[in-house]
Specification:
The complex is a heterodimer of chains A (about 525) and B (about 290).
Chain A lengths: L2 H9 L7 H6 L3 H29 L10 H36 L7 H9 L1 H16 L17 H4 L2 H30 L12 H32 L13 H35 L6 H15 L14 H13 L1 H15 L8 H24 L1 H7 L3 H31 L5 H27 L14 H30 L36
Helix pairs in contact in A: 3-4, 3-5, 3-18, 4-6, 4-8, 4-10, 4-16, 5-8, 6-8, 8-9, 9-10, 9-11, 10-11, 10-13, 10-14, 10-16, 11-13, 14-16, 14-17, 16-17, 17-18
Chain B lengths: L16 H20 L5 H28 L5 H42 L21 E3 L2 E3 L13 H24 L3 H31 L8 H34 L8 H26 L1
Antiparallel strand pairs in B: 1-2
Helix pairs in contact in B: 1-2, 3-6, 3-7, 4-5, 4-7, 5-6, 6-7
The chains are: A mainly alpha (about 525), B mainly alpha (about 290).
Chain lengths: ~525, ~290
């Protein structure tokens, strides 16, 4: 029997249909679709929570909720957006696109891949269940410490903290399993002839992300485990009465937490250059420089954590070290920005929705990066720490840099995934609504932050009222605009103009050589790269 | 079903085990939380969750073994498993690094700092900048701290030294078994594996005795300040890994006796052996930094 007919026998086993298809699937596209759908649903859940927060902040004083519930919304909003919206979206793209981009038959460990996804819904249940339990009189609601779990507040907190600890454990297992799968796939499943330095940039971004996850997620698991034993089993890790130190938790948490920022962004830095090259119709500029910069950022990511708590108390040499190492990250990042802009330079550019998002992303993420440089300054940070300036800064990096980057990816690959073109006019409308309302939401927060408005407080001084009002109205506009996003996706899945194999005039890479949508089993025979 | 050729990657059929396993984890985690917060119906959720997890692991690994002995895994799949196992062990190293980090932080920074404060400005008086530290004495912020009178730190030259010898020997016996496997000497393989399992179980028994002694005779508990917390968390998680490793070794021993492995094709054996060596190396770290120094 020839290889092709063997393959035919082997891969055309029965596919279960309905819910069983999704529960049992080992197919990378099915699993990618589940990740992306889960991410979109949780994005709306987390968004609804933050609209509650913004509604409370519409006016000074307490109108809608008590401060404790406000704190719960703040913490769960962040945990959901980071762990249940952004990370699954990046993993969903990895599942869908990495095997197509490197010419692999599937992900290397398909059952593990399935498990990686199915750990997510239980974690989402653990995160949100305490809200429901509180309605029945069990416990006092969800985690109210913010997403950072700082002791002693988290040691004193209620049942919600325990739920969040175990949610983080399951999410962590899911991330580590996903990372193992991606590392193995990239090292072992590339098409013959595709050397590491011929891999698509998205694959590079994810490879470094996966290494960061494997190195840091277990440290977070250890940290929250110590928190759990401090809460229930009498240990003194974070209690000075036994020789421990609450600041130690901050070190452990941010040893994970800072790389986490790059975990969220590196996959985006991977595919944005691909989008830029597609719509500029010229090759990516500085491929090698970009790969080396990604490595440099990945390496620096794990040695700069303490800049998140400069004001918590540290010896001056430590402050200086963490300040300079943090600022050093701007060097490789500047190389990336230069390469992104140079990729567009003198290109035959067109501005379809993915390109609009990509270009807007460069500018807005640039603002996030530059304000980060301000916060990295120890002296300036003493003023800005814990203010709305920080809130605005990390929403520029994680909403503009993360979510809007993911949206660029959605518009870029949706025709490939579904076989249908999305509605271009609605897509452009979605971009402008998102970009404008996003800026109107967060620019005022830079100003109120500089003027001294503290974060995580449901009430504020009267002089911040106007800017908060603008911020709240824009936040609702931003939230409602995302319903348009959902509508565009549903419309595209249901039908529309048929997409060609190549989809975009300037698209390059193996995923564009397959039909749109690709067959259930792509690349049963690996292509050879010259 | 036809086996596939060397250049076809084996993509397994759909499997329901991973998703049910996740339900088991949800049940175990939420039951544990309820139980800790004095809602004792949680106990039953924990039992249910644990039962699901054991059953699903059994079924899942069972299908992997079936695929292995029916020849679905060629050198390409084998390489995937190898890289995957290496990365998994790296993540385990990072997990232990968090607890070692906590130990070093407390010994080098927080205990000396607490001892160095002026008695007028700190509520936590009478810290000694020494290790082990039991924390302050006297009344602090309304709580009376009384270090147990019979408190003794764990010495390295009793049971811990025996445990070190046990684990190091088990590293040697598993390597001897591996040689037997490569040279196709079934007896050497099975005896080597059986000895390794035996040494693992003996280690666990010794550690149980050590814990019993600590709690009943030495006044050393989880609550014994920074020393007790790091001691029990580090050795406890290590012991848990030895327990997992021993369980895997027993499975591999049974598979060796059934003749599942060939000199060329035995990743299952090697993966467990790597894991066992990792557990060994962690123990050496514990022996030096927790017991000796």
């Amino acid at each position: 029997m020839s290889a092709t007919t063997v393959a035919h026998d082997d891969v055309h086993h029965d596919h279960p249909t309905g819910i069983m298809r999704w529960l049992t699937t080992t197919n990378h596209k099915d699993i990618g679709t589940m990740y992306l759908t889960f991410s979109l649903v949780m994005f709306l859940v987390g968004g609804a929570m933050v609209l509650g927060i913004r509604a409370e902040l519409f006016q000074p004083g307490l109108q809608l909720m008590n401060p404790d519930f406000y704190n719960q919304l703040i913490g769960v909003h962040a945990l959901i957006m980071i762990f249940a919206a952004l990370m699954p979206a990046a993993t969903g793209f990895a599942n869908w696109m990495i095997p197509l981009q490197i010419g692999a038959p599937d992900m290397a460990l398909p059952r593990l891949n399935n498990w990686g996804f199915w750990l997510l819904p239980p974690s989402a249940i653990l995160l949100t269940l305490p809200f429901t339990l509180a309605l029945f009189g069990i416990g006092d609601g969800a985690i109210a410490t913010g997403w950072t779990f700082y002791p002693p507040l988290s040691v004193q907190g209620g049942i919600g903290v325990d739920f969040a600890i175990f949610a983080v454990h399951l999410l962590g297992v899911s991330s580590v399993m996903g990372s193992i799968n991606i590392i193995v796939t990239l090292f072992n499943m590339r098409a013959p002839g595709m050397t590491l330095m011929k891999m698509p940039m998205f694959a590079w971004g994810w490879l470094i992300t996966a290494f960061l996850l494997v190195a840091t997620i277990p440290v977070l698991a250890g940290a929250v485990t110590m928190l759990l034993t401090d809460r229930h089993f009498g240990t003194h890790f974070f209690d000075a009465a036994g020789g421990g130190d609450p600041i130690m938790f901050q070190h452990l948490f941010w040893f994970f937490g800072h790389p986490e920022v790059y975990i969220l962004l590196l996959p985006v830095w991977g595919f944005i250059p691909q989008i830029l090259q597609t719509f500029s119709r010229k090759p990516m500029y500085g491929y090698k420089a970009q790969v080396y910069s990604l490595w440099a950022i990945g390496a620096l990511a794990v040695v700069v954590w303490a800049h998140h708590f400069f004001t918590a108390g540290m010896p001056v040499p430590a402050l200086l070290y963490f300040m300079y190492s943090t600022m050093a990250i701007s060097l490789p990042l500047a190389v990336l920005f230069f390469c992104w802009i140079k990729t567009m330079w003198k290109g035959s550019m067109t501005f379809e929705t993915p390109m609009l998002f990509a270009v807007g992303w460069i500018i807005l993420f640039g603002i996030g990066g530059l304000t980060g440089l301000v916060l990295a300054d120890v002296a300036a940070d003493a003023q800005y720490h814990n203010s709305y300036f920080v809130v605005a800064h990390f929403h520029y990096t994680l909403f503009a840099g993360g979510i809007m980057g993911i949206m660029a990816g959605v518009y870029y690959w949706l025709p490939k995934m579904t076989g249908n073109m999305y509605d271009e006019n609605l897509g452009k409308l979605h971009f402008w609504l998102t970009a404008i309302s996003f800026n109107l939401t967060f620019i005022p927060q830079f100003f109120v932050g500089l003027a001294g408005m503290p974060r995580r407080i449901p009430d504020y001084a009267l002089q911040f009222a106007e800017f908060n009002m603008i911020s709240t109205i824009s936040a609702f506009a931003l939230g409602l605009s995302q319903l348009l996003f959902v509508y565009i996706i549903i419309k595209c899945v249901k039908g529309g103009k048929k997409a060609t194999d190549k989809v975009w005039e300037g698209s390059e890479g193996l995923e564009w050589t397959l039909p749109s949508p690709p067959p259930y089993h792509s690349f049963t025979e690996q292509p050879v790269i010259k | 079903m036809a086996t596939h050729s060397e250049n076809q990657y084996y993509v397994p059929h759909g499997s329901i085990y991973p998703s049910i396993l996740s339900v088991g984890l949800l049940s175990l985690a939420s039951g544990f939380i309820f139980n800790m917060n004095d809602l004792h119906f949680g106990k039953w959720m924990m039992y249910l969750g644990a039962a699901i997890i054991i059953a699903m692991t059994f079924k899942w690994m069972g299908s992997v073994i079936t695929e292995s002995i029916t020849g679905q895994y060629k050198s390409w799949e084998d390489k995937s498993f190898r890289i995957g196992m290496i990365v998994f062990i790296c993540s385990e190293v990072a997990f232990f690094a968090a607890f070692f980090g906590a130990l070093f932080y407390m010994r080098v920074l927080s205990v000396p700092d607490l001892a160095g404060y002026d008695a007028d400005i700190t509520p936590y008086k009478d810290f000694l900048s020494s290790w082990p530290s039991l924390g302050p004495g006297g009344k602090v912020l309304g709580t009376e701290y009384v270090p147990p009178a019979d408190f003794k730190p764990m010495h390295w030259n009793g049971l811990p030294l025996i445990n070190t010898i046990l684990l190091l020997s088990s590293g040697a016996t598993i390597t001897w078994a591996h040689w037997g496997l490569i040279k196709n000497k079934r007896n050497e393989l099975v005896i080597g594996m059986a000895l390794t399992v035996l040494l693992g179980i003996t280690f666990l028994a010794c550690q149980a005795m050590e814990y019993h002694e600590a709690y009943t005779e030495m006044g050393l508990t989880l609550g014994s300040g920074a020393y007790g917390a790091t001691f029990f968390m580090l050795t406890g998680f290590h012991g848990f890994h030895v327990l997992l490793g021993t369980t895997m070794l027993i499975v591999i021993l049974i598979r060796c006796m059934k003749g599942h492995f060939t000199p060329e094709h035995h990743f299952g054996f090697e993966g467990v052996a790597w894991y066992w060596h990792f557990v060994d190396v962690v123990w050496l770290g514990l022996f030096i930094f927790v017991y000796m120094l």
